[in-house]
Design a protein that fits this description.
Elements lengths: L3 E5 L12 H13 L4 E4 L11 H15 L5 E4 L5 H14 L3 E5 L8 H14 L4 E5 L1 H4 L5 H8 L4 E6 L6 H9 L4 E4 L5 H6 L4 E4 L6 H12 L3 H17 L7 H9 L16 H13 L16
Parallel strand pairs: 1-2, 1-8, 2-3, 3-4, 4-5, 5-6, 6-7, 7-8
Helix pairs in contact: 1-2, 3-4, 4-6, 6-7, 9-10, 10-12, 11-12
């Protein structure tokens, strides 16, 4: 159902802390013009836990209206409450999202049976395609392969964003979920081995700032242009690494600010990246040939 590069969009904030709606619209237009295959709104990279209910609905609605069916819009609707997740997914469905991305419930640490029943409850209460989101590093629970297999039998659970770091899970998941179950990596550096193992693409952080390069990489894979594929992968790898030199989305927001896409502002408890990591991000963009406005500042260790 989904393939290629789908951007996990940041949520831009103004200096006064409000959502920067103009920047958000412009970022979506930039993504579409650059050939990206879809967008995720209100996901981890979008700092969704810091949005209040009104902001959450506004950001979802803005993304859906701006994209206007030119690319799929996947709404992040996962919480650690099954009832709240149902309500968020119903809202995404009402607003016209093309699918929901639902992270495994964090902090609660449910059993595999609890995970199955959680996702089944959301599935049964909605009528929208659902992508599972397995991110044990953030949620402290892993959606097991057998559980994925059980969930794949539900008609509207169509795929998974896989962030376990185990590329071999693609093959094991395909064995229990079948070849039509969509598998997307959420780890940018894993894109090449993921595609080779049979994955469909990447729900990406890096494509916030390099959508054309990411789109070109996927197109070279589709065309079996291995030389271009390898060259683009090499070019992007330092950028991928830099985007996770601190907690996401700090680095990608700083990079986006250098490109004039939005401000680097984050909401607490996240803070702007440290001076040493700002330099690392700038160096990575330079090496990748991504043009940006170089800051003319004298940094201290706390900047």
């Amino acid at each position: 159902m989904f393939e290629g590069y789908i951007t996990a969009l940041v949520t831009p904030f103004s200096d006064n802390g409000s959502v920067d709606t103009n920047a958000y619209r412009q970022m979506i237009e930039h993504q579409i013009a650059s050939g990206i295959n879809g967008i995720v709104t209100c996901g981890t990279t979008g700092e969704t836990p810091t949005l209040n209910d009104d902001e959450y609905e506004m950001v979802l609605s803005l993304a859906i209206k701006t994209a206007s069916k030119r690319v799929p819009v996947i709404a992040g609707t996962g919480t650690n409450s099954t009832q709240t997740t149902i309500e968020c997914t119903q809202l995404a469905q009402k607003l016209g999202a093309d699918a929901a991305l639902i992270a495994a419930p964090y902090y609660n640490k449910p059993t595999q049976e609890g995970l199955y029943l959680h996702y089944k409850a959301v599935h049964d209460a909605t009528n929208i395609p659902i992508l599972l989101y397995n991110v044990p590093g953030r949620s402290a629970v892993d959606i097991g392969v057998d559980t994925i297999g059980r969930l794949s039998k539900l008609p509207r659970i169509v795929g998974i964003k896989e962030c376990s770091g185990d590329v071999n899970r693609i093959v094991r998941t395909r064995a229990v979920a079948g070849p039509d179950f969509c598998q997307m990596t959420g780890d940018d550096p894993m894109i090449l081995p993921f595609l080779i193992q049979g994955g469909q693409g990447c729900i990406s952080v890096t494509s916030n700032i390099a959508p054309k390069l990411c789109s070109d990489l996927f197109q070279s894979w589709k065309k079996k242009d291995i030389a271009t594929l390898s060259a683009l992968n090499d070019r992007l790898l330092p950028v991928h690494d830099a985007m996770f030199c601190e907690t996401n989305p700090g680095p990608v927001k700083y990079a986006a600010s250098l490109l004039g896409l939005c401000g680097e502002n984050l909401r607490l408890p996240l803070t702007n990246v440290a001076a040493a990591n700002k330099t690392k991000i700038e160096t990575a963009l330079d090496k990748a040939g991504i043009k940006f406005n170089k800051p003319n500042v004298q940094r201290t260790a706390n900047q």
